[in-house]
User: Fold this.
Amino acid sequence: MMDVRVIGVGTLGRRMVVSLAKERKLKAQFVVVDDGDCDCCMTLTLDELKEAVPEILSADRVFILGALGGRTGTRAVEILIEHPAAASPRVEFYLVLPFAAESLRRRRAERLVARMKELGASVHLFDNEHLLRLNGHTTLRRAITIFPMRIQEAMYNFFRLSKETLEYEGFRLKDLDREIRLLEAVPAR
Assistant:
């Protein structure tokens, strides 16, 4: 059986991992790197992560989910990419970029992404700036669920699971299809 780890970094990563872990369909070890405990998966602080990186990245497949720009998620990714295994094709990062208006967070995230690409890490980016294109087509609350849903959808695809029940923050993937189609169809500004 394949050893798969799904690691949520920071607040957004924790929310995604908790949502996925509650499904009980995914055969994976779930890890959260964030302040505070999580009752459904292993929780690590940033200091504990430093010691655990070799073990965490040793799995057959590792998915790292979270948002960049904040403190915990960004710092966790910085720690993870310093290990040589982070550039392995077995390890994939699914990360959300902050809005451009969050200029300091955005610059920090962009520098980190450039460093990740320089190291050869496999990075899938979801840019919050694209959500502004949905203005007038949906609520902000629904819009900000789109990228976490897309990331979770990628996990479902990997595990070959039906996405009918996929839910995040009270919204089901099938209910967000209209907004997702809009996001993908509306040209960038």
Notes: The chain has seven helices and eight strands. The chain has one domain: 4-185.
